[in-house]
Amino acid sequence: MANSIANALSAAMTEQMPEEMKSMMGGASSMLQNMGGAIFGMQLGQAIGALSAEVVSSTDIGVPLADLEMALLPSNVAKFGEGLSLPENDIRLFLAVREAAHARLFVQVPWLRGHLLGAIEAYARGIHIDTSKIEELARELDPSNPEGIQEALSQGVFMPQRTPAQEQALEKLETALALVEGWVDELSWAATEKMLPSAAALRETVRRRRATGGPAEHAFSSLVGLELRPRRLREAAALWASLKDERGVDGRDAIWQHPDLLPTAEDLEDPKGFSERRKLAEASDSEVDDALQKLLSGGFDVPEEAETAGDDTAGPDETEEDGEPGTDDAPGEGEAPKP
To answer: Which of 232, 93, 68, 115 is nearest to 240 (CA)?
Structure first.
């Protein structure tokens, strides 16, 4: 994503450059790309700095950052617990359980990490820069005021406008992250509700923290305008809880077997209707499979009328004995047919 924005910045600079200057630049176009990367690097540094001060674990933004290794950040865990009036051990244990749940999911579902990163990459491929916003910034900024420049960069000065393709990628990413967070929320609650008296309070604290804008929301939004929908966490948790009641733990977790089985944004809007919609979809798929099997076996080569006639009428062989037609009712030569 950082590379996409850096390239978009350099492209925007090239487009705004006068024609006579373009011919003078010659092979120095790579310098523009480096300049674009340096400009965006300032904003990226702001986002990473804010992220490092907020995350409590390696999976706190929904995507594993430590190569599938579990990790907690003690200083941020302590900051998370400020004002909660809950035992520190309970807070650490609850967050450790959430981290373990994240790690288990990404290890047991090896395609999931690539699925999330693929959605981010699909979003990044459509990035373009609105140069008018940069020009407006250049007119208003005071070079002698570093704080003003820093503040402008942290507000997403280079935030691109979304395209329809990016909107689709964004919906895919939001839904996938909501499903991950909802599954972790449900699993962590099941593991701690009887062990930790403060589990309910901690669960609600995490949910509210996500609702008010957690690390993922701030980092993605300040970088490229990727604003996630944390309100879907509760909806996703309700969906996983409903699936557990209907199918059991194994049936619930079987949804992670393939990306095509994942609930959609529509399913998050109506969690209880997911199973019924899935049954209808499976029935439709079954009809397609039957038709395909019939096609491969040559069943469509025989007209239906011929098949029906062959089933309802007896062939001539069925009335023959010893290879001759039945003669009991057949008239002899010169005889009239029997009534």
So the answer is: 232
